[in-house]
Structures are given as C-alpha cells and as structure tokens.
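USER: I would love a firmer grasp of how sequence relates to backbone shape in proteins. This is the protein in question:
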Amino acid sequence: MKRMLPLRKRPRFPQYNTDEEREGLRAAGRFNAELLDFLRPHVKAGVSTNHLDALAEQYTRDHGHIPACLGYSGYPKTICTSLNDVVCHGIPNDIELQDGDIVNVDCTTIVDGWFGDQSETFLIGEVSDEARRLVQGAFDALWIGIHATHPFCSVIEIGAAITKFAREQGFGVVENYQGHGIGRKFHQEPGIPHVPFRRSRSEILVPGTSFTIEPMLNLGVAATQPPLDDGWTVLTEDGSLSAQFEHHILMTEEGPEVLTTTKNGPREGHKF
C-alpha cells in the first residue's frame, strides 16, 4: 500500500513508499552487508586489493547479483579500495596491503534492480596512533550524521553535525565528494554533503527517501587533489591519511533505518 504525503511535502527527488519498494531496498542493503562480511577476513597484510576485487565479483555473481561499480562510467573494477592518502575511488591493483596501512573498502551491488552501497575503513596490523584516531573519528562522524537525521529534517543538519564534530577533533572534512540518493539508480538526488552547504537547507528528507551518508575525514587539510590520470583515484592535497565509513539509509516515518548493518563489522559505539 502506497503511503501518500501532502503535496507541499513532496520532494524533488525519488521516494520509495510502497512495501515492495522498501523491501527491495532492504534486500539490496542486506546482501551488500553480507558481501562486506565475506571480504572482511581477507582484508589483511599480504593480500592485494586486486584479490579482494576478484573475490567480491565472484561472490556477487555466485549469488545472482550484479557488481554495480564494474563498468559504471568506465570504472574497471567491482569495488573501490582507497589506501592511506587516497580519499576515495581507489582502483584495486596488485600492491599488497602492509602492516600499518589503512584501507577503505567500498562495495555497491545491484539486487533485483535495487542498489545497495556501503564502505568501511580497515586497520591493517598495527597502525599508528594518529591513523587509529582518524579511523575512529570517521566512524563516529558517520553515526553523528545518521543521528542528525529525522523525518522531514533538512540535509544541511547532517553536514552541520559532522563538521562540528570533525573540527573539534582537528580533522579536515572533504567537501568535493558527498553522499547521494540511491535506489533504482546508483547516484540520484538528493546530494548529501558532509559540510553545511546553504543549498542543502531546502532539501528535506521525507519518509521514503533513500540515501547514503559517507563522511571522508583527513588527518590534515580538507582539500583534495584532482583525480589521477586513471580518472578516478583522489588523493589528499597534503599527502595526509584519509578515512571514510558509509551506510545506506532509508528514512521511514519512525526515523532513519540503516540498511547495510553487517553481522561481523563494527557497530555504533565500536572502539578501534
């Protein structure tokens, strides 16, 4: 049964209000979380990100689903693996992970036409205190952003909450890349910036909105370099470490529902 909203509350972006639509989103989120849990024990020193990518593609196809990133706007791999000073969109390669690295693994899958999307930053072996502090900060910032949301809130509330926290901790909040609406399409409105852009004040998260929150925090300045020659890989401007966590959220009448909770990954309140 479709849940109708007053005309004045209808947004300019897609909403998913039938039971069938919401169950489709939930199924996509559940599988995407399952995929990340499958990869989890393999994200360790001595393993190449290319190997992680091959595992992700095989697992996705074995379950009858589609790797969303593979071929998307020419992207050549199934997952993104952003290592150390890579902010986002790192392309898997043959370089092996080493003790002391941090690496973000970003997975997106298509399940019966619905997209699920999330990421985690992993600590490889013994990392520096500053790296651990940064990863903790990015994880906490994600949950601060989630808790800033409620039915009919403004998108600007997410960026305001994350930026306040990050600046108190001394981290740079990346402005050039943001969260996004997601559903039957990979990227759609609304955009979800992690800083309080004025234009976000008029974007209202009505029940039925499906979106990601995925703050990218830098140990140094917030600025990033232009993408490398591969067209994808984005580095911090000053070479400092960067960390990110992402969840796929459905705004319901009762509040935000996290669709990509893993069974084995860090839950809210986790300490790295």
Observations:
- The chain has a mean pLDDT of 95.
